[in-house]
Write a structure and sequence with these properties.
- This protein is mostly helical.
- Helix 4 runs antiparallel to helix 15.
- The radius of gyration is 21 Å and the shape is globular.
Length: about 400
C-alpha cells in the first residue's frame, strides 16, 4: 500500500527541513470553517430560540444533532463514498455543508433546521475523515502529525476566533447572518479545491474488505479509546469552566471570557507542540502531556481556590489537552494504514464521543454531591484511564511499529 498519491501535491516526502504542501493549509482553513459552525450556535441560542418560537433547550439540539451527524455519519459516508475520487468527495462534502447552512438560514421551522444541522454534521465528518487522508498522503507518513496538527489547529482557532466573531456578527445582524457567511465561504472553498487538488489525488484506494479489515485490529480500538478519554478529560471541566472559575476560584464573571481566551491560546500552543513533536516521539510526547494533564486537573480540584491560580491552571489544561489531538489521529493512521478512510472516520467519531461523554458526565457530577468540583474529578479520572491505555500501547509499540511499517510499505 503506498503512503502517498503520485500527484504534484505529494511528489516528495516531507522532511524536517521541508514545509508542508499548500493543500494541507487549505484543508486547515476549511476545518476552521466547519469548527466555527459546530459551536457558533452556543452563543446565539436565545436569538435562535426566539426566532423559531421554541425553547432554548430545544434550540440547543442544533449542537447535539450536529455532533450526532459527525459521530454516525462520518463512518457511514466513508463507506458510501469509497469509490468516489477523494477530490470529488471533499468538494461534495463542502457543497452539502453549504446547502445545509442555506436551509438553516431560510427556514422558520425548527424541524427543518435540526435536519439541516444533522446533514451539516454528516458533511463535516466526511470532510474531516477524507481531508485527513489527503493531508497525510500529500505530506507523507513521516509528517503525519504535523499535517494533522494543521487540520486540528483550524478547529482550535475556530473556538478562539471563529465562534466569538460569528456570535458577534449574529448579534449585530441576525442569527442567520453567520450561516449565510459560512455557506458562501464553504462554496467558494469548494471551487478553490477544484483548482488546488489534482483529479487523481487518490493514492491507493482500499477495497471494502480492506476497509473493514483495517478496523479489526485490537490496537486500533485501544487508540480510539485513548482518543475519546483524552477529549473527555479536558472537555468535562471546560464545559463547566464558568462556575468553576466564579464559584470555586472567586473570579469575577466579567473576567471569565479572558480566562477562556487563555485556555484557547493554551490549546493553540499544545496543538503546535503535538504536531511538532508527535512525528518523532508520538508515545513519549502524548504520555507526558496526558500525565501532566492529570496533575493539572488534580491541582484544580484541590488548590484552584485562587482566581489567579485557577486561570493559569485552566490555560495549562488547554496546553496539555490539545497536545494529544494531532498525535492520536496520526497514531490511528499508523495502526490502520493511511489510506483507510473508515478507520479515520471512526477516529473522528471517537473525538466527538469523548466530547459528548465528557460534557454529559461532567454535568452529572456537577449535580452530585461533588458540586462545582465534580466535572474536574470526571476529567481527572478520564485522564488517568487514558494514561493507562497509552502506557499499554507504549509497552507494545515495537511490535506495532514493525506491523505498521510492513503495512505502509506493502505494494499496491
Amino acid at each position: 500500500m503506498s503512503s502517498a498519491p503520485h500527484t504534484p501535491t505529494a511528489a516528495a516526502p516531507v522532511t524536517a527541513s521541508r514545509g508542508l504542501p499548500p493543500v494541507v493549509y487549505l484543508l486547515g482553513a476549511v476545518t476552521f470553517l466547519i469548527g466555527t459552525s459546530e459551536l457558533i450556535v452556543a452563543g446565539l441560542l436565545p436569538d435562535i430560540a426566539a426566532a423559531l418560537h421554541t425553547t432554548v433547550s430545544r434550540a440547543g439540539l442544533m449542537i447535539t444533532l450536529f455532533a450526532a451527524g459527525m459521530i454516525i455519519g462520518a463512518p457511514v459516508m466513508a463507506l458510501a463514498t469509497m469509490r468516489l475520487p477523494r477530490r470529488a468527495t471533499l468538494i461534495l462534502a463542502l457543497v452539502v455543508f453549504g446547502i445545509a447552512h442555506v436551509l438553516s438560514a431560510v427556514s422558520t421551522d425548527l424541524t427543518v433546521v435540526l435536519v439541516a444541522r444533522f446533514v451539516a454534521g454528516i458533511a463535516t465528518g466526511t470532510f474531516w475523515a477524507v481531508g485527513f487522508v489527503v493531508a497525510v498522503a500529500a505530506s507523507g507518513q513521516a509528517a503525519a502529525a504535523r499535517a494533522t496538527g494543521i487540520l486540528v489547529l483550524g478547529i482550535t482557532l475556530a473556538n478562539i476566533v471563529g465562534v466569538p466573531l460569528g456570535t458577534a456578527l449574529g448579534q449585530a445582524l441576525t442569527w442567520q447572518g453567520p450561516f449565510w457567511i459560512l455557506a458562501g465561504l464553504s462554496l467558494a472553498t469548494a471551487l478553490l479545491l477544484t483548482w488546488v487538488l489534482p483529479p487523481d489525488v487518490r493514492g491507493h484506494r482500499a477495497t471494502l474488505r480492506e476497509e473493514v479489515a483495517s478496523i479489526r485490529r485490537p490496537r486500533l480500538w485501544a487508540v480510539y479509546l485513548a482518543t475519546a478519554l483524552i477529549q473527555a478529560a479536558f472537555l468535562a471541566p471546560y464545559s463547566y469552566v464558568a462556575p468553576l472559575l466564579t464559584d470555586q476560584a472567586g473570579l469575577p464573571a466579567a473576567l471569565v471570557p479572558l480566562a477562556m481566551l487563555g485556555y484557547g491560546i493554551g490549546g493553540v500552543v499544545g496543538n503546535i507542540l503535538g504536531g511538532r513533536l508527535g512525528d518523532r516521539r508520538p508515545y513519549g510526547t502524548v504520555n507526558i502531556a496526558v500525565g501532566l494533564l492529570a496533575v493539572v486537573l488534580a491541582a484544580i480540584v484541590w488548590w484552584a481556590t485562587s482566581s489567579v491560580v485557577a486561570v493559569i491552571l485552566i490555560a495549562l489544561v488547554g496546553v496539555f489537552g490539545f497536545v494529544g489531538n494531532p498525535i492520536m489521529m496520526s497514531l490511528i493512521a499508523r495502526a490502520s494504514g493511511p489510506a483507510n478512510t473508515l478507520a479515520i472516520a471512526l477516529g473522528t467519531s471517537a473525538i466527538q464521543i469523548g466530547v459528548a461523554a465528557g460534557s454529559a458526565l461532567g454535568g452529572t457530577a456537577f449535580d452530585s454531591g461533588l458540586g462545582v468540583r465534580g466535572p474536574t474529578v470526571v476529567g481527572f479520572t478520564a485522564a488517568v484511564l487514558a494514561l493507562f491505555t497509552l502506557l499499554a500501547l507504549t509497552a507494545t509499540r515495537a511490535r506495532a511499529a514493525s506491523a505498521d511499517a510492513h503495512r505502509v510499505q506493502a505494494p499496491e
